Amino acid sequence: MKYYDNELKAIKRVNRYRNREIYPEYLRDFASNDYLGFASKKKLFKKACKRVKRYKYHSPKASTLVNGYHPIHKEFEEYIAKINNFEKAICVGSGFLANLSLFEGLPRRGDLLLLDEEFHASGMIAKELNDAKKAIFKHNDIKDLTKHIKDFRENSSGRVIVGVEGIYSMSGDILNRDIFSIADKFGAILIVDEAHSVGVLGENLLGVFEYFDIKPKPNHIKMGTLGKAMGSYGAYILSSNEIYEFLSNRAKAIIYATAPSVFDIALSYESFLYMKKHKDSLKKEIRKRKKTVQNILDTDLKSLILQIPVKDSYEALSIKEKLLKKRYIIGAIRPPTVKKPILRVIARINEKGFEKLLKLIKNEIK
Which of 5, 97, 111, 112 has its CA 20 to 30 A from that of 36? Predict the structure, then answer.
């Protein structure tokens, strides 16, 4: 008996079928979120191995609240909290688990949880795991956000929790800075998912808090991933000591999940140290990428995510296949991930052939 055959056929008919592939290493990669090229930097790998070998255990073995909390976890948490000017940090196994921890753990009955309509799927899923009132506000729209908060405050004294991204993963849009002001004005807890902004924005490439020159306050929470620009795996949550304690005692994805990989945290630590040391050269390369996009596509690229609209899913897949034959890989993003199909090009700074790729795409979408 086939349980999902009809549904799979329907997905294929509308060109939304997905499957996992291992792509050849010779492809010029402009699809992954490895913004700084750290994922192939063997020097960082070797340093991480050396750091882990100092200890008897190289595995977390259990949750952090049992016996899985490793000295490398603690050292990295103290470092990442200090350089971002937050009181506390918690490492978790992935960005998905971090958002699950935040949106399941923080909102309680009588609270209001507000998410930007373009927030990542992890938040959209996790928001259903609590007893709070939920609402979605228009993307980066402070008027709509304010209206939701005011309407709620007329009838309730509960907490307001707002979820936004530093750089939105599909559009490449940067967070509207005024959202910080709105959150502070109404005393709302503001969760900023910096998965795609760390390593890309700010004087020290630490993300939108630094980019906007915002000093963290007790109502601010920052989530950052250790994949993407850091070339590793895992995530961290930065917050006040009070919120740190609450999450440690209420967030199920922290309490019950095995602690993060010790090696991945060590690798992330080395990546942050490298980024700090080489920030000027990295920023120079980021500026070059943005200038190239401006010169060829006449587009003012705010992040390292280039979104190119296409007619339909068929065209998105067709262009992707044509580029694969020319040894380039990009993202062909289709609904329901986005409302309308797009080509998603990551302007990775340490990958060759970027100018040629943009010219090929420009020729395809005329």
Answer: 97
pTM of the model: 0.94
Edge-first strand listing for the sheet containing 331-333: 305-309, 342-346, 331-333
How many whole angstroms separate alpha carbon 317 and alpha carbon 17?
Answer: 11
Give dist(CA 152, CA 347) in Å, integer. Answer: 41
AA letter at 93? G
Give 263-291 pLDDT, tens digit per residue.
Answer: 999 999 999 999 999 999 999 999 999 99
Of the candidates 350, 363, 253, 254, the residue with the CA atom closest to the CA atom of residue 40: 350
Half-sphere exposure for 209 (CA within 13 Å, toward CB) = 23
Question: Can you give the C-alpha Rg of the chain in angstroms?
Answer: 21
**CB of 68 closer than 8 Å to CB of 62:** yes
The strand pairing partners of 162, in sequence order, are 114, 190
Which run of H or E residues covers position 12? Answer: helix 5-13
**Number of Cβ within a 10 Å radius of residue 24:** 9
Instruction: Look up residue 354 and give its DSSP letter.
Output: H
Alpha carbons 247 and 99: distance in angstroms, whole number: 12
| pLDDT the model gives residue 27 | 92
Averages of pLDDT over runs of 10 residues in the chain (366 residues) are: 90 87 92 96 97 95 93 98 98 95 95 96 89 96 97 93 96 96 97 97 98 98 97 98 96 94 98 98 97 95 94 90 95 88 94 94 84
Question: What domains are defined for the chain?
Answer: 5-30+279-364 (3.90.1150.10), 44-276 (3.40.640.10)
Count Cα atoms within 13 angstroms, Cβ side, for 357: 29
Q: Are 205 and 240 in contact (CB under 8 A)?
A: no
Long-range contacts of range 209-217, CB-CB < 8 Å, 24 or more positions apart?
Answer: 209/84, 209/85, 210/84, 211/174, 212/177, 212/180, 214/180, 215/85, 216/84, 216/85, 216/86, 217/184
